Amino acid sequence: MTATTPRARLRLGIFGAGSLAQKAHLPVAKAHPDLDVVALCDNNLSRAEMVAQEFQVPQVFSNWEEMVKQVPLDMAIVCTPNIFHAPISIAALEAGAHVLCEKPMAIRSEDAERMAATAKRTGRILTIGHHLRFEPAIQAVKTLIDQGKMGRIYYIQARYLRRSGIPGFGSWFTRRELAGAGALFDIGVHALDLALYLLDFPQPETVSGVSYAELGSRGRGLGGWGADIFKTSKDFDVDELSAGLVRLAGGAAIQLEASWAGYNPSSEFIGIFGTEMGAEIVREGGPFKLRLHQDLNDMPAVTEPVLPQLQAPVPQKQYWWEIDQLVRAIRENGQPMVLPEESVITTRILEGLIRSAGSQAEVRFGKNK
Ligand SMILES: NC(=O)c1ccc[n+]([C@@H]2O[C@H](COP(=O)([O-])OP(=O)(O)OC[C@H]3O[C@@H](n4cnc5c(N)ncnc54)[C@H](O)[C@@H]3O)[C@@H](O)[C@H]2O)c1
Q1: What digits encode the pLDDT tens for the residues 284-311?
Q2: CA dist., res. 184 & res. 351, Å (int)
Q3: Residue of the nearest CA to atom 39 in ligand 1?
Q4: What is each CA distance from 217 to 143, 183, 186, 238, 360, in whole angstroms?
Q5: 29/17 Cα distance (integer angstroms)
Q6: Which of 35, 189, 266, 308 is the most exposed, having the fewest neighbouring CB atoms within 10 Å of its CB?
Q7: How far, in Å, is the centroid of ligand 1 from the Cα of 19?
Q8: Cα 364 to middle of ligand 1, angstroms
């Protein structure tokens, strides 16, 4: 019998030691047999040191450029405020790492395009943190669409609304210079990603959008996440509610709604209109449910399939899948679930929606972008 040499684990570096890294990336990475978390960076050094101690990460940095320069990485996770996603991801790719960058990919489409181009040029994998794609309801409906069972999909409602969910006033989330936008970039990006994924990412033709900050600007609608939510500043110059109609090449359209706060119930909902069948994907506590709508002998019928449960060795199941599929893509020279070119399209649409809201006019996208 010949002994097999165990393969070396991938050296993982994490940029940002805030809420998401602590809640999701670090517990998943520490439990993953193929990953060795070798370094952690946060510009708040005491936070970085505390988190590194908790998760036994040997090297700690307060400056991301130093970490990129000093630590050879096979894989990097970028979970800093949005403004830093592009520069850190690009530097990590240039240094040879495969990168999982949190959503939103970038706050400007030129940055997203540069990130995608860098991944292509360096031959490294870049993927974006859209863990909701792994939800069984999304995968089930995607399979039905791909098999043609729903006919042609011509309209999708994509809604992610929170009743009171503004991250602490004065944290980076509520400042445009650091976040790019508010609810739209924070949760609207997930809803838009799902809708575009189900439609196979057609190019956008036009977007018409509106944005509001009616509650946040008066200190209402507070939620509570993010590492710096107890800062006392009242800075709030982002949207708390944005909505838009996106027309896509081929004729389909997406109606997007995202809010952190509003006098309306919280709702996570995707409504899909196909020529043969429709579907609702809705969160009513717990994982998403799927309901299918069709005609049976000319009678309207609703079916609620029993979905498989997402299985994972840790409670953070979608994050396990997100990280594990990247590890497998790296090991097997494969593709990740979320491609950078896809998130470039998402970024362009979100940017267009903001522009449209500001100018109170429809935005038309160029042909070859
Ligand atoms: N996929 C998801 O569902 C999901 C959920 C939550 C957050 N996110 C994304 O993850 C990112 C982080 O969110 P969070 O909730 O953890 O925020 P957070 O505020 O809790 O953490 C961000 C951390 O980054 C650190 N930081 C700030 N500037 C830095 C810099 N220049 N270099 C290194 N570290 C820096 C902060 O000190 C903080 O510890 C955001 O982009 C957010 O949109 C995604």
Answers
A1: 888 899 999 999 999 999 999 999 999 9
A2: 10
A3: 18
A4: 43, 14, 18, 9, 20
A5: 13
A6: 308
A7: 7
A8: 32
Cα–Cα distance between 123 and 76 in angstroms, integer? 15
Q: Residues 195, 199, 200, 204: is their CA dihedral positive or negative? A: negative
Residue 265 lies in a domain: yes
What is the position in ligand 1's atom list of the atom closest to the CA of 85? 41
The pLDDT tens digits for 88-125 are 999 999 999 999 999 999 999 999 999 999 999 999 99
Which residue shows structure tokens 């992610």? Answer: 160
Instruction: Give 123 Cα–ligand 1 centroid separation in angstroms.
Output: 26
The whole-model pTM stands at: 0.96
Residues 202 and 56 both lie in one domain: no
Pocket test for ligand 1, best of 79, 100, 178 (most atoms within 8 A of CB): 79
* 195 and 69 assigned to the same domain: no
State the CATH number of the domain containing residue 283. 3.30.360.10
Question: Which residue has tokens 């995707």?
Answer: 270
Please indicate, yes or no, whether residues 86 and 104 belong to a single structural domain of this protein: yes
Same domain, 106 and 199: no
- Residue 224 in any domain: the answer is no
Q: At what angle do helices 340-359 and 189-198 cross, to 10 degrees?
A: 120
The verdict on 148 and 32 lying in the same domain is: no
Task: Please indicate, yes or no, whether residues 115 and 183 belong to a single structural domain of this protein.
Answer: no
121 in the same domain as 24: yes
Task: Give the residues surrounding ligand 1 with Cβ less than 6 Å away.
Answer: 15-21, 41-44, 47, 64, 79-82, 84, 102-103, 129, 131, 186, 225-228
Task: Supply the CATH number for residue 90's domain.
Answer: 3.40.50.720
Q: Determine the Cα–Cα distance for residues 204 and 130; give it in Å rounded to an integer.
A: 20
Structural domain harbouring 260: 134-160+174-213+239-316+331-364
Q: Which two tokens stand for residue 343?
A: 């998130």
